[in-house]
Amino acid sequence: MNLTITGHHLEITPAIRDYVISKIDRIKRHFDHVIDIGVIMTVEKLRHTVEANVHLSGKDIFVQADDADMYAAIDSLADKLDRQIGKYKEKHSQSHKTHGGIKHQPVVSEE
Predict the structure, then answer these.
(1) pLDDT at 91 over 90
(2) Rounded average pLDDT over 94-107
(3) Which residue pairs from 11-18 have beta carbons closer than 8 angstroms and sit at least 24 positions apart in sequence?
(4) Among 6, 14, 63, 93, which is 20 to 30 Å from 47 by CA?
(5) Domains located in the chain, CATH noted
(6) Average pLDDT score, the chain
(7) Average pLDDT, integer, range 34-48
(8) Alpha-carbon distance 16 to 35, whole Å?
(9) Which long-range CB contacts under 8 A does 74-79 form with residues at least 24 apart?
(10) Is the pLDDT confidence value at 18 over 60?
């Protein structure tokens, strides 16, 4: 997995970098097929914005979080990303596909 952290109007300090990496590790724990993650941090006056673009096999997930504090924005981003990765993982699991579809339901005749 490749992780790219970029700052606009912000210097990426080792503390912020370590904090982002620790939050992104939570995603790798849930889903192992992450190819690439790009994180962009922006500061505009009192608004701190963090964006993440996660490239999975077959899908790209984009998440954005705003807050007055950069660390709170990173926390919010990690929560949103965790939820979306969980939805993607659940939707594409094999057991869900084989047992949940209408095609695989038994046919009941009313004779």
Answers:
(1) no
(2) 62
(3) 12/41, 16/41, 16/70, 16/74
(4) 14
(5) 2-90 (3.30.160.100)
(6) 85
(7) 92
(8) 22
(9) 74/16, 74/19, 74/20, 74/23, 74/50, 75/23, 76/50, 77/23, 77/50, 77/51, 77/52, 78/23, 78/24, 78/26, 78/27
(10) yes
| The pLDDT of residue 84 is above 60 | yes
Q: What are phi and psi of 106, to 5 degrees?
A: -70, 145
CA separation for the pair 47, 44 (Å, rounded): 5
Query: What letter represents residue 45's amino acid?
Result: K
Contact between 34 and 28 (Cβ < 8 Å): yes
Residues 6+ away with beta carbon under 8 Å from 85: 27, 30, 31, 54, 61
- Burial class of residue 79 (count of CB atoms within 10 Å of its CB; 0-12, 13-18, 19+): middle
Q: Name the token pair of 55.
A: 């490239």
